[in-house]
């Protein structure tokens, strides 16, 4: 019997070769295809032809943290607890960032393999995900390396399993708002594959480019051509590679005026219930809001005791551009969310519309391109592409099946 490990109720076969799972942040279907069409992604073309080219559904909210944590635990947020970048803790009446591992309720697949003796690696673009994705790794073992591009120069043997990352990768620490932040992830991945040679590695990029431009643009094609080269290099080194995305991306602006399309929910709830009586939470909000102004297509609302939820939902549903308006119980059931980390109501908006709090609360001065964003059901469809042929892929594929696909489905 060959070795396998079990994590959060799912069983994973031991890697047959160094296995790399890639999360291409914000990779709406079309970006890769258009880069291939422009003749600039020969390796992606080869993977899609000779390996596997599938589509999967992300977790809702279609935001970065809930999906990265679902991918690395193999389960939806109701299991791992990370339902957004932050949540409102009604008990302490504070808005709490969820980038600390104390909020994580499930072990990661990486940790489980590491504890079973595997050599593991993890590189993430932004530092906000590093502690969550690398939770539980034992750097003293010499079998774990985990760091972020953003803080590559701060990495130490004790905290990351590696030091001198900048000279190891051979690139300077990139600006946090740049394509280079993602390129650093792949450059590091190739170096790790050459020298450290992990059994299992997770690489996670940032969606800076996808927020800026759509598929087929020169900037997008340059970005995917860059990725193509690094994936080809890892393939040459014998790696099994499966790439997916945390969520897609859509235009969220008026095509004529280029102004963002926003429904300001806090303003509406203030009109209906009195100022500040309800609290609208946008779980996309984090310290890096320049490229989207904290505007996405998912919001959750805490309403005061005694407020009539069904009456409020009926009002929200009538707003043009609202896709779904659900009670907490309905949202938890439909999306697999943890009830204690979301509000009383959940609202999603349609393809080209975002949900905001109030106009004065959103700093849109950093938006130098018309708004593109994500969060709703219209950004749920993502690619899943492998450099090997696959067998027994489950029906109703989710992006958080990607480790199972990479470990259990490679023919
Ligand atoms: Zn993302
Ligand atoms: Zn984003």
Main sheet record? 7 strands, mixed
Strand fraction equals: 15-25%
Bound small molecules, deduplicated: zinc ion
Question: Given the C-alpha coordinates, what overall shape results?
Answer: globular
Strand order of the largest sheet: 4-19-10-3-9-7-8
Structural class assignment: alpha/beta
Number of helices: 15
* Helical amount: 25-40%
Q: How many strands appear in the DSSP assignment?
A: 19
Poorly predicted ranges: none
Mean pLDDT: 96
Report Rg.
21 Å
Distance between the termini: 17 Å
Structure commentary:
By secondary structure, the protein is α/β, with parallel strands linked by helices. The chain contains 15 helices and 19 strands. Strand 5 and strand 6 form a beta hairpin. Helix 9 runs parallel beside helix 11. The radius of gyration is 21 Å and the shape is globular. One zinc ion (ZN) is lined by residues 25-26, 64, 207, 246-247. One zinc ion (ZN) binds at residues 26, 64, 207, 211, 292, 374.
Question: How would you summarize what this structure contains?
Answer:
By secondary structure, this protein is of the alpha/beta class.
């Amino acid at each position: 019997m060959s070795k396998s490990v079990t994590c959060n109720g799912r069983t994973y076969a031991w890697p047959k070769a160094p296995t790399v799972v890639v999360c291409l942040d914000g990779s709406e279907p079309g970006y890769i295809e258009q880069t291939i069409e422009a003749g600039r992604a020969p390796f992606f073309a080869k993977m899609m032809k000779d390996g596997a080219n599938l589509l999967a559904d992300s977790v809702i909210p279609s935001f970065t943290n809930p999906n990265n944590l679902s991918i690395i635990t193999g389960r939806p947020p109701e299991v791992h607890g990370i339902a957004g970048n932050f949540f409102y803790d009604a008990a302490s009446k504070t808005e709490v960032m969820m980038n600390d591992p104390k909020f994580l309720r499930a072990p990661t697949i990486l940790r489980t393999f590491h504890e079973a003796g595997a050599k593991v690696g993890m590189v993430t673009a932004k530092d906000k995900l590093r502690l969550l994705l690398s939770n539980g790794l034992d750097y003293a073992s010499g079998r774990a390396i985990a760091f972020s591009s953003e803080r590559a120069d701060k990495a130490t043997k004790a905290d990351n399993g590696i030091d001198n990352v900048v000279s190891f990768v051979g690139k300077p620490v990139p600006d946090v708002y740049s394509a280079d932040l993602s390129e650093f992830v792949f450059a590091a991945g190739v170096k790790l594959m050459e020298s450290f040679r992990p059994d299992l590695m997770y690489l996670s990029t940032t969606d800076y480019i996808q927020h800026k431009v759509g598929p087929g643009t020169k900037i997008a094609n340059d970005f995917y051509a860059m990725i193509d080269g690094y994936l080809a290099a890892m393939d040459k080194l014998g790696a099994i590679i499966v790439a997916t995305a945390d969520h897609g991306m859509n235009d969220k602006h008026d095509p004529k005026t280029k102004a963002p399309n926003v429904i300001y929910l806090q303003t509406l709830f203030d009109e209906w219930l009195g100022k500040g009586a309800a609290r609208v939470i946008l779980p996309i909000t984090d310290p890096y809001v320049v490229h989207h102004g904290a505007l996405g297509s998912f919001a959750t609302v805490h309403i005061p005791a005694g407020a009539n939820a069904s009456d409020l939902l009926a009002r929200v549903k009538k707003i043009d551009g609202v896709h779904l308006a659900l009670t907490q119980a309905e949202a938890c059931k439909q999306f697999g969310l943890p009830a204690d980390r979301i509000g009383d109501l959940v609202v999603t908006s349609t393809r080209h519309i975002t949900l905001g709090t109030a106009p004065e609360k959103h700093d849109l001065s950093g938006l130098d391109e018309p708004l593109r964003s994500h969060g709703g059901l219209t950004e749920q469809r993502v690619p899943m592409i492998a450099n090997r042929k696959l067998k027994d892929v489950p029906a109703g594929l989710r992006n958080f099946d990607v480790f199972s696909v990479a470990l259990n489905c490679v023919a």
